[in-house]
Amino acid sequence: MHYTGPVYRHPLEAFTLLLQVTQGCSHNKCTFCTMYQDVSFKVDDLSLVEEDLKEARAIYNHLDRIFLENADPFVLSFEKLKAIGEMIRRYFPEMETISTYANIKNIKDKSVDELKELRALGYNELYVGLESGDDKVLKLMNKGYTAVEAEVEMEKLNDAGIEFFALLMLGVAGKGSGKAHAQTTATLLNKVKPKMISVIPTAVFPGSQLEVLRDRGVFIEPTEREMLHEEKHLLEALEPFDCLFYGKHSNNLVTVTGRLNKRKGKMIKEIDEGLSVFSDEILDRIMQRSSL
After folding, report:
1. 3-state SS class at 228
2. Three-class secondary structure of residue 257 per DSSP
3. Strands 244-247 and 17-20: what pairing?
4. Does a cis peptide bond (omega within 30 degrees of 0) precede residue 28?
5. CB count, 10 Å around CB of 197?
6. What is the DSSP track for 234-255?
7. pLDDT digits (tens, 9 = 90+) for 95-141
8. Cβ-contact 213, 260 below 8 angstroms
9. Per-residue pLDDT tens for 233-273?
10. Residue range 40-95, pLDDT digits in tens
11. DSSP for 154-222?
12. What does the alpha-carbon distance between residue 248 and residue 37 come to, in Å, rounded to a whole number?
């Protein structure tokens, strides 16, 4: 299998075959991110993709799920994604789900009809790096879109029948802004109703633009306590629609997970328990983290 540079996938894809179709990130300008700083964006040749599929076919007798790498492969044109999907299905006719990371901007150049055609090929369960539903935060994090634009593109996915997972960052609005940020973001999520909401705490990584903003006093890091309260406020503001809430990343101080329509109240209680169990020293510190 061909892999270039760092390889990232969501924890839920731990046992999914990773197929590289791009290298680096097409945007690579997010204020908080250093994941692909040293990797130039490049589209892999289809011949390399086919070599990896041949290798995978020789290993796996059955494969019904595959995850496309690297960074945001959904940036590829409809025609390119279609060709990759058709190639995957030639080697694995039993394929049910082609999943990948996606940026809101990746969806803009694709019509609903094109998205429906991709869904028919198996493209589904896209991990959308939303991060926030607040325009000021999106601008500060240099995401390249507004909350309204995010809503429009996610509704296109809904119209096409493509399920998506919203990836969020707790604390990304900075110290003292958690409750308001949770409410604004929940308002957007209640409209578009993703199939999963995945939350991780914000961290300032060395070499990131966020580090520069922190050092200038533009961004003030929230404590662990503040981010847990923000997560609680987010859960309280979310409607109990059928959605998996996933707060079980290794970076989460208190891990909670469950479906909003079944465990919303219990997850709120679990966060409260965490707030009561951990010491003030831990809750009031700013934890250093090594990766997203």
Report:
1. helix
2. strand
3. unpaired
4. no
5. 23
6. HHHHS---S-EEEE-STT-SS-
7. 999 999 999 999 999 999 999 999 999 999 999 999 999 999 999 99
8. no
9. 999 999 999 999 999 999 999 999 999 999 999 999 999 99
10. 999 999 999 999 999 999 999 999 999 999 999 999 999 999 999 999 999 999 99
11. HHHHHHHT--EEEEEEETTT-TT-HHHHHHHHHHHHHHH--SEEEEEE----TTSHHHHHHHTTSS-PP
12. 26
Task: Give the Cα separation of 130 and 169 in Å (integer).
Answer: 9
Task: Give the bridge partners for 244, in sequence order.
Answer: 196, 259
* pTM tops 0.85, yes or no: yes
Residue with tokens 């694709």: 110
Torsion from C-alpha of 200, 204, 209, 213, nearest 10 degrees: 110
CA angle, residues 142, 221, 252, in degrees to nearest 5: 90
Both tokens of 76, joined, read 């590829």
Tally: H helices and E strands in the chain: 11, 10
- How far is Cα 39 from Cα 51, in angstroms, rounded to an integer? 22
- Residue 290 pLDDT more than 80? no
Nearest to 155 by CA among 112, 95, 198: 112
130, amino acid identity = L
Tell me the C-alpha distance between 128 and 149, whole Å. 13
Place of tokens 């973001």: 185
Question: Domains along the chain?
Answer: 11-283 (3.20.20.70)
**What single string gives the DSSP state of each residue in 138-150?**
HHHTT-SS-HHHH
Q: Kindly state the helix (H) or strand (E) to which residue 100 belongs, with its residue range.
A: strand 97-102
Cα–Cα distance, 54 to 246 (Å, whole number): 34
- The reported pLDDT for the residue numbered 41 is 95
